[in-house]
Specification:
six-stranded mixed sheet; 3 helices; AcTrfase_PglD-like; PglD_N; 209 residues; binds acetyl coenzyme *A; alpha/beta; 14% helix; repeat; transferase activity
């Protein structure tokens, strides 16, 4: 089977894990990575191509698949919107050791890391990261451009708004609604609805100044 060529956008730790995931499937050939800041020639065996200005010439060479390997939600959204407009297709990078229910709905440009679980009827929208060992239980919605960090547990029916970041090891009780572009600090326990554009931390999670 012919494998599709894909370019990785980003050269940090998140890119390394995405390279691992793509190498463990037979679906894609990684042509290289671009980076604005990391100019090392090699990242886990993948060659550095240049900064993002190289992308238009890659498109002319017929490379239309990309994986946006950037953890920061605002930057990842900006790149997603720009690259889709330019004709790229952000691919899904789903680890073979993640579990994704057949009734879950998964958007485009989604990353699901090793050991993550996405249970029945969950919705994972475009450009979302579900990080290592994180559990997204039944009927959760994770809106576009959000990042759920490693070891997070979302109980059933949780709603996460666009661009929200949930820090490592946090827990959220059932049916809670979290607004958009909000930050939940590492290790928080979210037991009430949380509004948009705030940072909360602690057990139970409260707004921090
Ligand atoms: C594979 C990967 O690595 S994915 C990336 C995963 N990364 C994460 O999960 C990081 C999550 N980030 C955090 O929890 C951060 O601490 C944030 C975003 C909540 C706050 O960051 P900053 O604004 O830089 O806060 P800062 O470090 O200055 O701390 C401010 C105060 O809040 C406290 N604080 C910070 N984070 C937390 C937290 N998670 N829980 C409780 N208190 C906290 C600090 O102790 C400090 O208190 P003090 O003023 O009494 O000393």
């Amino acid at each position: 089977m012919q494998r599709d060529k894909v370019v990785i956008i980003g050269g940090g730790g998140h890119a390394k894990v995405i390279i691992d995931i793509l190498n463990s499937s037979n679906r894609y050939d990684i042509v290289g990575f671009t980076s604005q800041s990391n100019h090392q020639q090699n990242l886990c065996g993948v060659q550095y191509l240049g900064d993002d200005s190289i992308l238009s010439s890659l498109m002319l060479e017929g490379i239309k698949y990309c994986s946006i390997a950037i953890g920061d939600n605002k930057i990842r959204k900006k790149l997603f919107d720009k690259l889709v407009k330019e004709g790229f297709t952000p691919i899904n990078a789903i680890s073979p050791s993640a579990y994704v229910s057949s009734s879950a709905r998964i958007g485009n440009g989604v990353v699901i890391m090793p050991g993550a679980v996405v249970n029945a009827s969950a919705i994972i929208e475009d450009n979302v990261i579900i990080n290592t060992l994180t559990g997204i239980d039944h009927d959760c919605t994770i809106s576009a451009h959000s990042h759920i960090a490693p070891g997070v547990s979302l109980a059933g029916g949780v709603f996460v708004g666009e661009g929200t970041f949930i820090g490592v090891g946090s827990s959220v009780i059932p049916e809670v609604k979290i607004g958009e572009w909000t930050v939940i600090g590492a290790g928080s326990a979210v037991v009430n609805d949380i509004s948009s554009h705030v940072t909360v931390v602690g057990v139970p999670a409260k707004k921090y100044i």
